[in-house]
Amino acid sequence: MLVSRPAHDPRPDPRFEAWPHRLSGTVIAALLNHRPQLAALGDAVHAAPYQAPPRAPVLALRPRHMLAGEGAAIEVPAAVEVGASLGIVIGRSACRVAAADAMHHVAGYLAVGELGLPLASHYRPALRHKARDGFCPLGARVAPAHEVGDADALALRVRVDGRLVHASSTGARLRGVAQLIADVSEFITLQPGDVLTLGASLGAPRAAAGQAVTIEVDGVGSLSFTLVAEAA
C-alpha cells in the first residue's frame, strides 16, 4: 500500500514521481466531457435540478488522499466503476490562455484512472462515493507531448484480470485538450506539474476486490493497480 508521508519527510512521494517529471499533486478532472456520456442523460439535463446542459466545464478537484501510483493496492468497499482518462501534464504556467496557444503549456500526458462507486445521478455526488483514498491512480511515466500524436484521437482501454472490458478514445469530447486548458485557465492558474484530466468515457466498466486493473492509452502508456477489500 502507498502511504502518506509527513510534510517534513525528505523522501519523494511515489505518487508524484512520473518520470521524467515531478507532479505537483494538483489534479483537476473534467466530468461529463464525453458527448455520448452527456447525451445518455437524455431529458434529465433539462429537468430540475439541472434545467439545462452545462455551458461551462464541469470539474472536480482530486485531493491528494485520492492519488495513488503505479502498482498501488486500492481499497474498495464494493464493486467500483473504472474509467480510463488522459492526464494532461502542465509544463508552463497557464493563465487565461487562448485555445490556439494552449498546447505550448503542455509538458506531456499520462494514463489516469477515475474510480468511483456507481451512482444513479451525476448531481452532487457524495464525497464518499467519488473521493475515497486512492480513487485517482496516476501512471508512472509522462509521455512528452512531442512524442504523442493527436491527443484528441488516442485509443483508451480498460483490462480487468487481463481481459479487455472497455474500449473508447479521447475523441468525441465537448472540450478537447486545447479548449479544456483554455476554459479552465480562464479562472484557475494551472502550474507546472498540475494534471488536468480529459475525463472518462461513457460505459466505464466495473471491477471488484481481488481483481487487477490495467488502463492503456495508446501513444502514452499504461497504468496498473489492484483492488483489495476495504478493512472493516
What are the salient characteristics of this protein?
single chain, 232 residues, mainly beta, Fumarylacetoacetate hydrolase, domain 2, seven-stranded mixed beta sheet, five-stranded mixed beta sheet, globular, disordered N terminus
Short note summarizing the structure:
By secondary structure, the protein is mostly beta strands. It contains three helices and 16 strands. The protein has helices at 35-39, 127-130, 177-184; strands spanning 17-18, 21-22, 27-31, 58-62, 67-68, 73-76, 80-90, 106-116, 136-137, 143-144, 155-160, 163-169, 195-197, 206-207, 212-217, 221-229.
Structural commentary:
With 232 residues, this protein is mainly β. The chain has a single domain, classed as Fumarylacetoacetase-like, C-terminal domain (Fumarylacetoacetate hydrolase, domain 2). Helix content is 7%, strand content 34%. The chain contains three helices and 16 strands. It has helices spanning 35-39, 127-130, 177-184, and strands at residues 17-18, 21-22, 27-31, 58-62, 67-68, 73-76, 80-90, 106-116, 136-137, 143-144, 155-160, 163-169, 195-197, 206-207, 212-217, 221-229. The strands form four sheets. Strands 3, 4, 7, 8, 10, 13 and 14 form a seven-stranded mixed β-sheet that branches. A hairpin with a 2-residue loop joins strand 1 and strand 2 (21-22). The two termini are 16 Å apart.
